[in-house]
Amino acid sequence: MILAKSALLPEGERRIAAEVFVATAGLLVLLARVEGIRGLAIAALGMLLAAGFLIVIQAPIGSVPIGYALVIAVAALADISTYFVVVGLAVLATIPVLAMRYGTQDTARRVVRWVVASSVCGGAAVGMRWLVAGAPSDTDVLLLNATVAGGVFLFADLLLRRALPVPTSPPVRVSESWPVQISLLCAAGLLTIAYQKGGPWMALVALIPLVMTRFAFDRYAAAQQAYRQTIKALSIVPEVAGVTPLGHGERSAVYAVALARQLGLNSDAVERVATAARLHHIGYVTLDDPDDARVLSNRQLLARLGGDILRETEFLADVGDLVENVHTDEVTSREAAVLRIATAFDHLVGEDPDRAVGALQIITFHQSDPYGAAAVLALERLLREDSEVVDRAIASGAPLTEAASASGASDG
């Protein structure tokens, strides 16, 4: 019976699978000749770790491989030479798949990050064995080794995320990442003790909580994605209605997020200002005539109406307060200042990056309150340090403006 091409895997994924299996077979044969049965076990563990690197948790901080827990457990359990052989095999086996998924540059950054973090983890495990007295089979000593080695590995990974960021693993702070890191550390400790007490079969059973953790974080990530898509859908309502420029909400959100991070706001505040930037014109849907929005008193009223609309949802009440603050006489917080500066900057720049310098000068001239002045200074630093932020903002609003152009609609 001949199967259709689409019966199992897409052609590209079948090719990757074939490459991985051929590489695996070669490694198994080589290690079997060199190490015998032990070599087969090492190769099998390496392939399990490779699968762990490729299966990721879609966490709030980006994608995190569940294989991190396996790396930590192997570091605590195996001798240093076996550990590096297993990690090396795993990383080599993932390269073809990563290259197809993410491209050469992204793959290189991931591989460097994994190799460096794993090396530091192995060094920490060796150091703990030398420092801590006790038999290798001592449960308390083994768990302590796993905890310290795991902590070093996860901290090194955080630092490397900042130094070598990729789209699915953005730079994060410890305050944002600790729930995921604690989950991985606990899973690693459970794997370590399960293997010590019951051998490989018990360790396989201990993998179940790790898999369940992945599904739990995936569901959370899916809920967050649905929330963001809903916010984006709401943000284009006044734009499609012609009362605000097309793409303004998305562009403002890019500036707001960049400014909030420049000012050191926490992740909750960054999310809040991004949502407010997308929805700050939601009150404009009550207008019969778009020209009414040109009057300042009307804009203040519309901001209050937008705040009222968002507060009625309850879960967007804090966003409603920010939206209402956009057109008030004086801002009352750093978040409100970020929102006001981001939206004003986009109104002046629009889709022309050459306006950025002039827009900054105009905004600087009109700022008098302390929060606004601080936000303007942050914007100045942002434009100096991240010259591509305006291009990114314009690109984020481009799908809507391009769709409107294709359909013959106008910006209004």
Helices and strands in order, then pairings?
Blueprint: H1 11-35, H2 37-54, E1 56-59, E2 62-65, H3 67-77, H4 80-102, H5 104-131, H6 139-163, H7 174-235, H8 237-240, H9 248-262, H10 267-279, H11 296-311, H12 317-324, H13 334-349, H14 356-365, H15 370-385, H16 389-407
Antiparallel strand pairs: 1-2
Helix pairs in contact: 1-2, 1-4, 2-3, 2-4, 3-5, 3-6, 3-7, 4-5, 5-6, 6-7, 7-10, 9-10, 9-13, 9-16, 10-12, 10-13, 11-12, 13-14, 13-15, 14-15
Explain how this protein is built.
The protein has 412 residues and is mostly helical. It folds into two domains: 13-220, no CATH class; 236-407, Hypothetical protein af1432. Helix content is 75%, strand content 2%. It is built from 16 helices and two strands. It has a two-stranded antiparallel sheet. Strand 1 (56-59) and strand 2 (62-65) form a beta hairpin. The model is unreliable at 1-16 (pLDDT under 50).
Summary keywords:
412 residues, mainly alpha, Hypothetical protein af1432, two-stranded antiparallel sheet, elongated, disordered N terminus
Count structural domains: 2
Strand content: under 5%
Provide the spatial order of strands within the biggest beta sheet: 1-2
Computed over alpha carbons, the radius of gyration is 26 Å
> What's the total number of strands?
2
Sheet with the most strands, sense and barrel status? 2 strands, antiparallel
Order of helices and strands: HHEEHHHHHHHHHHHHHH
**Helical residue percent band:** over 70%
**Structural class estimated from helices and strands:** mainly alpha
Shape: elongated
Distance between the termini: 60 Å
Oligomer: single chain
> How many helical stretches?
16
Unreliable spans are 1-16
Overall pLDDT score: 78
